[in-house]
TrEMBL record:
PANTHER family: PREPHENATE DEHYDROGENASE (PTHR21363), PREPHENATE DEHYDROGENASE [NADP(+)] (PTHR21363:SF0). Its EC number is 1.3.1.12. Residues 8-289 form the Prephenate/arogenate dehydrogenase domain. Keywords: Amino-acid biosynthesis, Aromatic amino acid biosynthesis, NAD, Oxidoreductase, Tyrosine biosynthesis. This is Prephenate dehydrogenase. One of its GO terms (molecular function) is prephenate dehydrogenase (NAD+) activity.
Length: 360
């Protein structure tokens, strides 16, 4: 068992995906974890899966982690602060300004509260989806404010490091502007694009490839949760969407008469702007570098992807990333393997020599 940085019991309120995953990760390190949830069924499942034990009236937690929906986060944090006057309290809601503002307005003791946000998740929620390794290598923001000292907040840092996450310090305002850009606005763009598919002809949908699936993947998210998130972070999201609308209007105007003077230049500039934006996204290990890729055709049979990856390793090539796509109407998949540019030619030749079919 790996030694934990935390020293005292941890209380988790709300045992959905995040709460259960935190409990599983901490109990694996020998930390005493007590659980609470409004749903007896969820609480029972989280306990059965080993995320902790049911909380009791005599609990004295060192740290309390509130993992409830955004619209009730401030109320639950205030309740926990009052019930456990010696504990530090954090929450994992995806907005940080609104809870802090509400707690200050209510007169809660924010000298023992600091919001945080792990940027980790899965397509499915609930305690059954919990994983002890959910946070490994993922950013976890700590949204500091003036009313709490570093010494008081150290338990939250220890929690994050114990769970294998990467601690990121931001103000609540910086956090909310950041997630508006990289999460909340993209959620709406993806959702609205997916909405265009509801009345589309089946003949059109049969042409869908990985590009459309990439754009619409997150559109399957829980609408109830996202209404709460967007309402709590409305202003930063609105600002980004207004700028996005201006970009879209310029493209629409150009497409109205693509042969008009300057129209194609405007379209090209928007496309080039997209290239520049993508280039700024950090790559593997936070590096800003581009990779080459090859696409390998993989038979849709058990063990084929594993064999491909094993042979890439045997060839001494480090795979930087992987993307899988199914070929509509065919019993094959397309594995796009990302490697350093200088490895593309050799890997292509070596895999082809081993009998792999290289697309293109």
């Amino acid at each position: 068992m790996v030694e934990s940085r935390l020293t005292g019991p941890v209380r988790i309120v709300g045992v959905g995906l995040l709460g259960t995953s935190i409990g599983l990760g901490l109990t694996a390190r020998g930390i005493t974890v007590t659980l609470a949830d409004a749903s007896p069924t969820n609480l029972s499942l989280a306990i059965d899966y080993g995320a902790g034990v049911a909380g009791g009236p005599d609990d004295q937690p060192q740290l309390i982690v509130v993992c409830v929906p955004p619209d009730v986060t401030a109320d639950i944090v205030a309740r926990e602060l009052a019930a456990y006057p010696d504990a530090i309290v954090t929450d994992v809601a995806s907005v940080k300004v609104a809870p802090l503002t509400a707690l200050r307005a209510s007169g809660a003791d924010v000298s023992r509260y600091i919001g945080s946000h792990p940027l980790a998740g899965r397509e499915k929620g609930g305690p059954l989806s919990g994983r002890a390794d959910l946070f490994i290598g993922r950013p976890w923001v700590v949204a500091a404010h003036d009313a709490i000292s570093y010494q008081q907040a150290r338990a939250i840092d220890d929690l994050i490091l114990d769970l294998g996450a990467i601690l990121v310090e931001m103000t609540p305002e910086e956090h909310d502007r950041g997630v508006a850009l990289v999460s909340h606005a993209p959620q709406l763009v993806s959702t609205l694009m997916a909405h265009r598919l509801t009345d589309a002809a089946h003949s059109s949908l049969n042409l869908a490839g990985q590009g459309l699936r990439d754009v619409t993947r997150i559109a399957a998210s829980d609408p109830d949760l996202w209404v709460q998130i967007l309402a709590a972070n409305a202003r930063p999201v609105r600002e980004i969407l207004l700028a996005f609308r201006d970009d879209l209007d310029r493209v629409i105007d150009a497409l109205d008469d693509p042969l008009a003077p300057g129209a194609q230049r405007r379209i090209a500039e928007e496309l080039a702007g997209g290239n520049a934006g993508v280039a700024r996204l950090p790559g593997k290990h936070g590096q800003d570098r581009r990779y080459g890729s090859i696409i390998v055709m993989v038979d849709d049979r058990p063990g084929q992807v594993a064999r491909l990856l094993a042979e890439i390793g045997e060839l001494g090539v480090n795979m930087e990333d992987l993307r899988l796509e199914h070929s509509p109407g065919a019993q094959i998949g397309l594995a796009e393997i990302f490697v350093l540019p200088e490895a593309v030619s050799r890997l292509t030749e070596e895999l082809a020599a081993r009998g792999w079919r290289i697309a293109g």
